[in-house]
Amino acid sequence: SGNNFEIIIIDDGSPDGTQEIAEQLQKIYGSDKILLRPRARKLGLGTAYIHGMKHATGNFIVIMDADLSHHPKFIPEFIRKQKEGNFDIVSGTRYKGNGGVYGWDLKRKLISRGANFITQVLLRPGASDLTGSFRLYRKEVLQKLMEKCVSKGYVFQMEMIVRARQLGYTIGEVPISFVDRVYGESKLGGNEIVSFLKGLLTLFATT
């Protein structure tokens, strides 16, 4: 690619063999390119970001799911977009241009669309996809946002963008196609929807 990179894999004791596969990749590509930083149990997405940041040596960090629902082919587009507008954050969007979602049932699509619509109306964040997690950040911007964010779960990604706008950071967007995971199950359920709505109202009241 011509880009100097490292891949940091944070695995929270998942039972799907992620760590074993990462160890095999390490043997092929070397431990300087594939950094495996496992944790003994599930400690949450926010702390995984902080854990990964401690080990990142570059000026920019791309965050993505490791189950290939986020395709690596979009990373060069993120980098191009960042350079083009000197953006602090480049966010992958399923809801603009030729972006889209594949493999979700109607209920899941409606929940995601509904969450985005309500958020746009209440918070006017200036970005079209608030709940996605495929993003490129300047390292120092990600550190600042992590200090400010208090949410957990589904609301966390949304708060990252809302706080970024609040702090005056610039955000670019790249249309992506999101493909639902082939292995494992989504954790989105009734409790997550309730906590999302609570988190949304908290953000509305505090931003």
UniProtKB/TrEMBL annotation:
It comes from the Eukaryota. InterPro entries: DPM1-like, Glyco_trans_2-like, Nucleotide-diphossugar_trans. It holds the Pfam family Glycos_transf_2. One of its GO terms (biological process) is protein O-linked glycosylation via mannose. It is found in: Endoplasmic reticulum. Its EC number is 2.4.1.83. Belongs to the glycosyltransferase 2 family. Component of the dolichol-phosphate mannose (DPM) synthase complex. This is Dolichol-phosphate mannosyltransferase subunit 1. The lineage of its organism: Eukaryota, Metazoa, Chordata, Craniata, Vertebrata.
